[in-house]
């Protein structure tokens, strides 16, 4: 692994344990196995490392979405029209596993959780990444499914809340229990099945 990437990975590990504020360049350098001044060959300062962590997380997220053949943004959501219930469940389980077990994704989220009460800037990043954007994305998906008569007529924003809130809860519940991944997946599967039973148009169900 290149020194630049190692600095990034070790920084994320430390940020996830102590929070961004309580980690210093000397701590990072010690974990990487270099002297603190050497960090400046790769990053301007600690904030530059933090911003690179955001970029790294977004890069990993986009790679995962592409792997699952999912739209990256809120445009061109048509692929969801071709996906049945079983495929949606499979995608949701793979995304859950990614967020709970991928070191970059997991440590990035933990870092923001620790730091959000200390920094309004970081809190804004957390809310945008894990609350606002996912809800807006899901709202647009359900709006499209309603328009295509795959889901019953209703409030797409409320659907997004009812769909995403349990997923958000499961992430918090199992964040530090990787050994319970099966339990997390079982719970999520039941939640999605129940949600589909409530909102899918009856002749489109895949029971």
UniProtKB/TrEMBL annotation:
Domain of life of the organism encoding this protein: Bacteria
DNA bind region: 24-43
InterPro entries xref list: Homeodomain-like_sf, HTH-type_Tx_Regulator, HTH_TetR
A single MF term (Gene Ontology): DNA binding
Keyword vocabulary terms for this entry: DNA-binding
Domain HTH tetR-type: 1-61
Protein's UniProt name: TetR family transcriptional regulator
